[in-house]
## 1
Amino acid sequence: MSTTESYPRPLKITIVGAGIGGLTAAAALRIEGHEIFETPSMNKEIGASITLADNALRVLNYLGFDIEHLKAGDYLGVAWFDSKGGEDWNLLVTKEEPVRAFEDFDAQFTALFALVDGPVHLWQIRSLLPLPTWINGRAALIGDAAHATFPTIGQGAAMSIEDGVTIACLLPLGTTREQIPGRLYTYQTLRKERGEFVVRESLEQVTIPSKRGLYSRSPEMQVFIVNHDAVRVARENLAVHVTI
């Protein structure tokens, strides 16, 4: 065996649309020793506020991000102001505008707009319906591409982070091209049900009155979501069920 054949060869992996999940995957795959080509969608981001619970922070710790180093300055407070410019996501419109948008609906539904008093807030937020599959050959969906969700329980970014590190842990150095489809099937097995659970609960806790605020009232749901260790779960599954 030659010297070059004595060492495992890295995979060459392309990440398209490197958002939170893609950046996590890139960082974790580099830890595994692979070569990464990424097409970022966040290269002009200057920062935004998101919620990261313990399940996401465990992954960041694994990647070497010390939260103590993230402090850019002394906290002074939060100020709300009217931002101008760009596309508005929360508009005030007259009630006639949504009436026109729903004019093809049955009268028993459009009659509800007569009950509206004053202007209407027009804004958009979307939740992705479950997809039949997240994988195809050596390609896989992660993050919002697989499970876009309402921000109701503050787990959208965390699910993307878990996706990214799960794929990386299932593709350790030494994985061959031929093994990738099987590893991605394992990724889907580990992630799809969990991601879709968060999507479903985030939607239902907005749209079903009896479920509003359920996450904050359910210790069992909090434990299921927040106590999850994506790195440990992926590695244990790889060791038990997958032949390297």
Note: Residues 180-207 form the longest helix (28 residues).
## 2
Amino acid sequence: MEVRKLILSIMIVINLIIVSFGFIFTSSWFWLLIIPFPLLLIALYHSFQTKHAILRNYPLVGYFRYIFESIRPELRQYFWESDMDGRPFNRRQRSIVYQRAKNQRETVAFGMQTDPQ
């Protein structure tokens, strides 16, 4: 079973269990829907969108990629390599390829991007 279908199935089952407990026992069970119901809606939305493949295939866990990407400069500053140290392609070359693949910016060349001294 695909990860996307597994996550959606688990989220639907959790929401149905909480709703059924709310109808069977007491309505105070509906307070538990505050977290899983919005997560289910987000997962459903991202499962059917076509713009981001990571969010489509991993509807909830895919957000971690964007979170870590946003704090990447801070992590890299203290723990990992710079933009020009990567092998076989450094971070700057990869980011240019990613931008061109998404048709965002085509004006960045592969030429010299650092001070040659």
Note: Helices lie at 3-24, 36-48, 53-57, 63-70, 72-78, 91-101.
## 3
Amino acid sequence: MSVKQHLDQIKHSWTAAFVVIAFTAVAGLVLLQTAFAATGSVYLSPSSTSMAHGSSVTLSLRINPGATVDGVQATINFDSSELQYVSLSTSSSAFPIQLSQSVGSSSIQLSRGDLSGGV
């Protein structure tokens, strides 16, 4: 093998390695952007409140999905020695379809969906 052929082979190997590295870097950035674009939050509103013993408080479960979603699932745990579950209203929910709902002595689990293309 001549020196020129050897140099061409090395050049070809480095070009292939560069293409693989560049593709991997671009794919990583696309996946990273997709992951951060879909980051959202689920929270209760108000986030804190004061109340007297025996009084009632209304909490709203809110989401900020960060992207279009067609469903939500949440579990709310609470101290049953301090709080007592009274009721759950979904009349103002952006997710009209109840997929599941379970109320225990110290937790509420719910799943709701939307078939109109997402919220």
Note: The chain has two domains: 1-37, 41-113.
